UniProtKB/TrEMBL annotation:
Keywords from the named record: Signal
Amino-acid biosynthesis keyword on record: no
CDD domains in the record: 3D_containing_proteins
Pfam families listed in its UniProt record: 3D (PF06725)
Protein name as annotated: 3D domain-containing protein
Gene source species: Hungatella hominis
InterPro entries hit by this protein: 3D_dom, 3D_YorM, Resuscitation_pf_RpfB, RlpA-like_sf
Span of domain 3D: 127-183
Gene3D superfamilies tied to this protein: RlpA-like domain (2.40.40.10)
Amino acid sequence: MTEFRKAERRRRVQRRMMKLVTVMSTVAAVLTAGYSFVSEGALEPKEILVPPLVITVSEEETPVGSGPPPAAMKEPAQSTSEAAAIPAPPTYLGEFEITGYCSCDICCGKKDIKLTKMETVPKSGYTIAVDPQVIPLGSYLEIEGVTYRAEDIGQAIKDRSLDIFFSSHEEAVEFGRQKKDVYLK
Ligand SMILES: [Zn+2]
């Protein structure tokens, strides 16, 4: 009887040991899996070695759940909407009477240096003369999809009239006098 009980006890201990070994190896496998997963994520695997699963879970779940990440996602969204709002739609100024001019003596009078009122070198299809009382110098205007810069003034340019700069007097004359819609950019 006693021999039988001893043997029975030994078997029980063995079974417990086997269970323990199984659990231990499972834990080891999980830890190894956790570690290898983390090290693939390249997030300082040495520090994560001790409690791998806890850190893996917390680092993986923070971006998904609530907390700082949604706020971090909101900020770029706001800045992109602000960036998109920067090029505001052009303001319609009305219909202007537009003429052409160039840097010749006829258009600008006899001068040694023929710069614009803003002291820039006038550019064809870009420089425009305005009435600075109506349009501040330096403003950008849009006429039929083309962007001009109000860099110059002219004696005859008053109220709703504009003078577009051309590189030759012929082109300026050919442009003549036209009425066009003007937008302030
Ligand atoms: Zn001219």
